[in-house]
Design a protein that fits this description.
Length: about 950
């Protein structure tokens, strides 16, 4: 190397220092001052890790005074360079800029600048950069984007609803699947897709107070969406930072009770702008005789200024038909404007459903059905289909096709089909049998005494409080005894539980009880009496502690046989790997009972669910057991009628529970009989009111199965795992296997960057296997949607890592010294996120492989095939090769840009074709459908028209950026 005072150099190892200047040369040492940072370095001339900065004609350079110039030619005198060119701000020509006056803050960020200045990256960095672009391009175009990343079983009806609604602009729908079919998961999938696609950024979820934590956990664990719970305390704290607390977070969960009672904070919530509003337990939004309750009015005010609205309820039409209409009116007030008109329209819905029922069974259509179908589809020519169905000699395949065609057309014209989705258990396969195992035991004398004494002090309690106290004798005993619980020493339910666990040996058992202290006491009893390994799960634990407890229960080896949960154990966690459920006590709320059983009674459960219920004979516990078992039949079957029956008979039940007497057996029997009669009448009405066509539309008619198969195919591929393991290696992340399907990731001392997306200081455990992720929720489920994957790709594509490289090609068929220049251009289009333009034109990599004449060989030489033939080269050798070929490479760049622009034109035309193909077809369908079904909203059609026009404009503004460059030199060494 030849040094001179005033020369500009850049550090190979500390490029952030900026542009350095040689300020002293003494003996074999050279001193360089990095003015931008005030740092000074002393290097040995023979081994200095620095590179001389020299620019070429055509480059744009910046002066220390702030102006820039385009270099036209270069003068060199006594080792110093003077650049001559056109000053850009004044257009003055023949302007001179000595290299000592170059901008000190200059950073080599263009790939060609980095290559020419010796900023040569490792071979594997360059390869990984190309893979990042390719993977990102493929994922952004995938129709499964936003669906594959959910930590959820691949259940067809859920996937269909999520895919159908999640891709809509401002979806406004009512999800009303029966209990246990996964409405929360469906809503989460929709939210996830909306956020990932850019259709929604600010989301407000309103739920009953008791479900806030369940939703918080579901959103984090299943979808990696970090919501914040807003209550009075949080709003007060946030008010110190912002005039509107609800604007301090993008993703918010709050309770319906909070919004109803705290008018001040409710008004702030309405002033904040939301893209999507989600309301759970929407049947509490009641509006009878045009008199809405407070909850309805609150949601109505929020929904007026929010584009998207999702309502969830398992009982859409059970708490009043007028209220059901009012909820539909929330979703689309223009469509559902008059209740009487709606009732009249519903009569025709029944005609549609009856016609669909005949099409769904394997028998000849009746004359009445033919007439109904003709009347319903009078706008279309269906003579061919009807002729096929009414001709005896028609082939079975043609009959099936004709029925499918007619069903499809009926679905598109069905009244609430686009905004109402409802699946029933009778229409969904995969649920296990539920077997109830009652275990009556005698009430101990200690409890009898405590209850007797307690009765003298309970006059001030309300009816419900008295009933609850009667159901929990251990709580009454505890009040007299103080902090140190000893009831487990004599409670026969504890001995029964121990004997049951011992008889089940290593089988997993989930125990749910109402109170956290009960769970803690039971854990102590199991440990002290029989050393049974148990995990405890309650609301007093942090989220991480709960995850660890659930994982200890879920794992196969060195694990807990039993998980003891307080009521929070009925939150949305997956324990279907267990088949035994112990209900140590029973809740008064029928929906809560169903939630408890639903932890095991889920699609994917492989065995019958054994429900064990210990209770004290001749006490309130026995009455409550029989109320549920014989009255509501709630243990062995899903009880969709429980809330309504309880609403009618709850007061009678509470009276008998609070003042239990074996002398009242006749009253007990009568109550249970009345409740059972009501239950069956409601159940019959529900079954008769089933809308087969609506359920058929909600299930997807096979579309969900196709989605599940497609996602399963991706799950079974190894491409993602291979890619991410390479990412971990490059970034210097420690990896330790944990079983067959899990890896523990921890930061190392030699990481490429100080932080890595989603990686905590104490490390995390990840899995690429869906089944493992479902059973062990403390692990991160890594998919193409996961923020760790997308964050790692963004780190590479958004930075200069791997943007310049040199490699050797050992190929004796080519003369030594032959070279190739590989370039990666990226076509970038900038557009508003709501257009989802990346579905049609994501950042698209364009690869060129030029020989010395500028001919592009990339079409005949694929990247992976070529890359396997290459060898890495050290930085010093690479710098020498670049220096020798710099002028030739520089001259090839204009030709490369011209070739890339040709390919860009093709990319733009193909993208426009995709836009028109997708949106024209959807527009045509919606416009035709609107003529027959006013349920199609005008703003959906407006949005599609606007989207098509805007996309054409943005696509034509696509820019090309040179993203990476690699020099390949043939060597026979």
């Amino acid at each position: 190397m030849s040094y001179a005072i005033g020369q500009r150099w850049i550090s190979d190892t500390e490029s952030d220092l900026g542009l350095g200047t040689v300020v002293n040369i003494e003996g074999r040492m050279v001193t360089i001052l990095f003015t931008a940072t005030g740092e000074q370095r002393l290097y040995s001339m023979s081994e200095a890790p620095i590179t001389r900065v020299l620019f070429n004609p055509g480059d744009t350079i910046q002066s220390a005074e702030g102006w820039s110039m385009v270099v036209e030619h270069i003068d060199e005198c006594e080792g110093l360079v003077t650049y001559i060119g056109i000053r850009q701000d004044t257009q003055e020509s023949d302007v001179q800029l000595r290299e000592v006056m170059l901008d000190h803050f200059f950073k080599m960020n263009k790939p060609q600048d980095r290559l020419f200045s010796g900023q040569i990256d490792r071979f594997d960095w360059y390869v990984l950069r190309q893979q990042c672009w390719a993977n990102q391009h493929q994922h952004h175009q995938s129709p499964l984007r936003g669906l594959i990343g959910s930590r959820a079983s691949l259940i067809p009806h859920q996937l269909h609803i999520a895919e159908e609604v999640g891709k809509r602009y401002a979806p406004r729908v009512l999800l009303s699947d029966e209990v246990g079919l996964g409405k929360t998961v469906e809503a989460g999938m929709i939210i996830h897709q909306q956020i990932i696609s850019g259709l929604s950024q600010r989301v407000l979820i309103v739920v009953p107070e008791s479900l806030q934590h369940q939703w918080l956990v579901e959103m984090i664990r299943r979808f990696n969406l970090h919501f914040s719970i807003f209550d009075d305390e949080r709003c007060t704290e946030a008010f110190a930072e912002s005039s509107n607390p609800f604007e301090t977070e993008q993703l918010v969960i709050t309770s319906m009770e909070f919004l109803s009672k705290k008018k001040r904070w409710f008004e702030q919530a309405t002033l904040a702008e939301w893209d999507l509003l989600v309301v759970d337990e929407a049947h509490h939004l009641v509006c009878e005789e045009s008199k809405p309750n407070t909850e309805y009015r609150r949601v109505e005010d929020l929904a007026k200024d929010t584009d998207g609205l999702i309502l969830l309820t398992a009982t859409p039409d059970q708490l009043g038909h007028e209220s059901h209409f009012a909820r539909l009116k929330l979703l689309d007030p223009d469509r559902f404007y008059d209740y009487n008109v709606f009732v009249e329209e519903e009569k025709h819905y029944n005609e549609v459903a009856e016609a669909a029922n005949e099409l769904l069974v394997e028998k000849k259509l009746s004359d009445k059905a033919v007439q109904t179908i003709q009347a319903l589809l009078k706008e279309s020519d269906i003579s061919h289909e009807l002729n096929t169905l009414t001709t005896e000699s028609s082939e079975p395949e043609r009959v099936a096709q004709a029925k499918q065609s007619l069903i499809q057309q009926l679905l598109d014209r069905h009244g609430t089909g686009r905004i109402l989705f409802r699946n029933s258990r009778s229409g969904v396969e995969g649920f296990p049998e539920r077997i109830v195992n009652p275990h009556p035991v005698e009430l101990p004398s200690q409890y009898k005494t405590a209850i007797s004494v307690s009765g003298q002090f309970s006059n001030g309690h309300c009816l419900e409080q008295k009933a609850i106290r009667a159901l929990f004798p251990e709580q009454i005993y505890q009040e007299f005894e103080g902090e140190n619980a000893t009831w487990w020493h004599f409670d026969p339910r504890v001995e029964w539980l121990i004997d049951t666990l011992k008889s089940l040996k290593e089988k997993k058992v989930l125990v749910i009880c109402a109170h956290a202290q009960t769970a803690l006491t039971l854990e102590q009893a199991l440990r002290d009496k029989e050393a049974i390994r148990a995990a405890v799960f309650h609301e007093g634990m942090s989220l991480i502690e709960r995850d660890k407890a659930a994982a200890y229960f879920a794992q196969d080896e060195d694990s807990a046989q039993v998980l003891l949960c307080s009521e929070i154990g009925s939150e949305g966690r997956n324990f279907q790997f267990a088949h035994h459920l112990v209900l140590f006590d029973l809740p008064l709320n029928p929906d809560l009972l169903e939630q408890r059983i639903g932890r095991l009674d889920r699609i994917g459960q492989t065995e019958s669910v054994q429900i064990h219920i210990p209770y004290f004979s001749e006490t309130s516990q026995e009455l409550l057991f029989h109320w549920y078992h014989e009255g509501l039949e709630a243990f062995e079957h899903t009880c969709a009628t429980g809330s309504i029956v309880y609403k009618e008979y709850g007061e009678r039940l509470l009276e008998l529970l609070s003042e239990y007497s074996s002398q009242e057996e006749e009253s007990h029997t009568q109550l249970i009989h009345d409740a059972n009669t009501k239950h069956h009448s409601l159940k019959k009405a529900l079954e008769e009111g089933r809308d087969r066509l609506l359920e058929l539309n909600s299930s997807g008619r096979g579309a969900g199965e196709k989605l599940a198969d497609a996602i399963e195919t991706i799950d079974n591929e190894t491409h993602l795992a291979t890619f991410m393991l390479k990412v971990f290696d490059v970034f210097g992340i420690n990896q330790d296997d944990k079983g067959d399907n899990a890896i523990v990731l921890t930061p190392s001392e030699h990481m490429l960057m100080p932080t890595f997306p989603c990686l905590r200081d104490d490390g995390i455990t990840v899995t690429f296997d869906r089944d493992t992720a479902l059973s062990q929720e403390d692990m991160h489920f890594i998919t193409w949607d996961h923020p760790m994957v997308q964050g790692a790709i963004d780190l590479f594509t958004g930075d200069e890592l791997g943007s310049s490289s040199v490699a050797l090609l050992n190929n004796k068929a080519l003369p030594a010294g032959t070279f190739f220049v590989e370039l990666m251009y990226v076509a970038e289009v900038t557009a508003p996120s709501e257009l989802q333009i990346s579905r049609y034109l994501p950042h698209t990599p364009i690869r060129l492989l030029l020989d010395k004449s500028g001919k592009d060989l990339s079409a005949n030489v694929p990247f992976d095939t070529f890359n396997r033939q290459l060898k890495p080269v050290g930085r010093q050798t690479g710098s020498k090769l670049v220096a020798a070929l710099q002028s030739v490479i520089h001259n090839l760049l204009p030709n490369a840009l011209t070739e890339a622009e040709k390919q860009l034109s093709d990319i733009q035309e193909k993208a426009k074709g995709k836009v028109h193909q997708a949106l024209d077809a959807e527009l045509e369908r919606l416009q035709a459908l609107k003529q027959m079904n006013p349920n199609v909203r005008d703003d959906e059609i407006w949005f599609l028209n606007k989207q098509k026009t805007s996309m054409d404009e943005f696509i034509m503004k696509t820019q090309l950026k040179l993203d990476a460059i690699r020099l390949i030199v043939v060597s026979h060494g």
